[in-house]
Each structure stands twice: as structure tokens, then as C-alpha cells.
Fold this sequence. Notes:
Elements: H1 7-16, E1 20-24, E2 28-33, E3 38-43, H2 52-62
Antiparallel strand pairs: 1-2, 2-3
Amino acid sequence: xxxxxxxxxxxxKLKKAGCYLKREGTRHEMWYSPLTGNSFPVSRHNKxxxxxxxxxxxxxQSGVKL
Length: 66
């Protein structure tokens, strides 16, 4: 089943896990995860539901269980 998680909810969960915003771009924000030491992009669009591939990529790069 596809997760129904919006961009704003993803960002809340990332913050709760200790990830933080490094910089803002036009279409994406760059976040940093202290769990993995990786920086990764997150959409700035605050859509109702994130694309499944985007969601999976954020999980993998952040090391956070969303």
C-alpha cells in the first residue's frame, strides 16, 4: 500500500528525528541527517501526498523511519 504522507508531514518527522534544514532553493530544500551524515533534497511544494519514489529516497538518505 502506498504511504499517504505529505511533504509538510515528512518535514515534521525529519525535524523530530534530529534532521535539520541546511539551505533553501527555488524548488527544493536541502536537509541534513546526523544519523547518516547525508544531505538530501526535500520538495518545497507541501503537496497532499508525496510521490512514492521521492518518499523512499528521503527515507533511505535520512536514515529516519517515517
